[in-house]
Design brief:
This protein has 121 residues and is mainly β. Helices cover 0% and strands 58% of the residues. The radius of gyration is 14 Å and the shape is elongated.
Amino acid sequence: QVRLVESGGGLVQAGGSLRLSCVVSGNIFRINAMGWYRQAPGKERELVATIDNSGSTTYADSVKGRFTISRDSAKNAVYLQMNSLNAEDTAVYYCNSRVRPTVWNDYGDYWGQGTQVTVSS
């Protein structure tokens, strides 16, 4: 069983910063890409940022220059540093990871339970 647990969400004023963390635990043979998605009320879930095994990153245009994704492979963890937050960043943020649980399994997409980020203007 693979489990993703996020932390670090909360309430912050516009212009402030937050750092989200996500740790993958359980049956882990290999981890490929890791990333963060978000879903605002009434909207579809959207990609925020991803990072692969080589450290290559991708970002949504709306967060470029403000958010930074990083990972610690030794800890099976991924982080999202969010700066210059604004009201449009308010959403539930979900951690995602492509995990191969055992040598006998293929890679699968796994999700955390989500952490709420609220930015007050």
